[in-house]
Amino acid sequence: YALTGARAYQRLWRWTFESDPPSSWYTSITNMAIFGFLYVGICLALGLFLAILLDQKIRGEGLLRPIFLYPMALSFIVTGVAWKWFLDPGLGLEQTLHHFGWTSFHFDWIKNKDFVIYTVVIAGVWQASGFVMAMFLAGLRGIDGEIMKAAQIDGASPLQLYRRIVIPLLRPIFLSA
Q1: What local confidence, expressed as pLDDT, does residue 14 receive?
Q2: Could you list the mean pLDDT of each consecutive 10-residue stretch along the chain, which spans 177 residues?
Q3: Which residue windows are transmembrane per the record (predicted)?
């Protein structure tokens, strides 16, 4: 058997210990770190925000929940193709903005090497934030109402309720989402 992957790792470790790795290796590691931190951070923040919004028993929750969850049902390939169409200057968002009179808008979403990582983060967050929202919403709905009532009777403000009671109770979901 030809272990091509093992040879790649062997070359990687040789670069690390014996000589400098190529600049593309540093670029890859940097992009991976940027994507990882932004993707996880934004998914958690957006998912928690959407879950708190839907937990308020707002009107239209039955319509909003499936809308937020729908992107999660798509495969990564479908999401990639959809975002490629959406970001195409002659077809997607830019063309739509030009159609409505904003002709000065022009941005190379995918062609700009400094911005493409953020475009990928946006597409990934769009797909995953609904799942994170569903997990947080389940956690929020599982919190005993008596704890919240007791804190309100003790004079806790809504911000204190979330900061001192809700967020600590959602810690296991933060770890699994």
Answers
A1: 67
A2: 68 62 77 95 96 88 89 88 84 82 77 86 93 94 92 92 92 90
A3: 32-55, 67-86, 115-140
Look up tokens 């540093």; give the residue.
26
The structural domains of the chain, ordered by start, are 39-142 (1.10.3720.10)
In Å, how far are 50, 97, 135, 166 from 56, measured between CA atoms?
A: 10, 34, 16, 14
Neighbours of 133 (CB within 10 A): 26
Q: What phi and psi values does residue 163 have, to the nearest 5 degrees? A: -70, -35
Hey, what's the torsion of the CAs at 100, 101, 107, 111, to 10 degrees?
A: 60
Integer angstrom CA distances of residue 21 from 4, 11, 25, 166: 19, 9, 6, 46
SS3 59: coil
Compute the distance between CA of residue 167 and CA of residue 162 in angstroms, rounded to an integer: 6
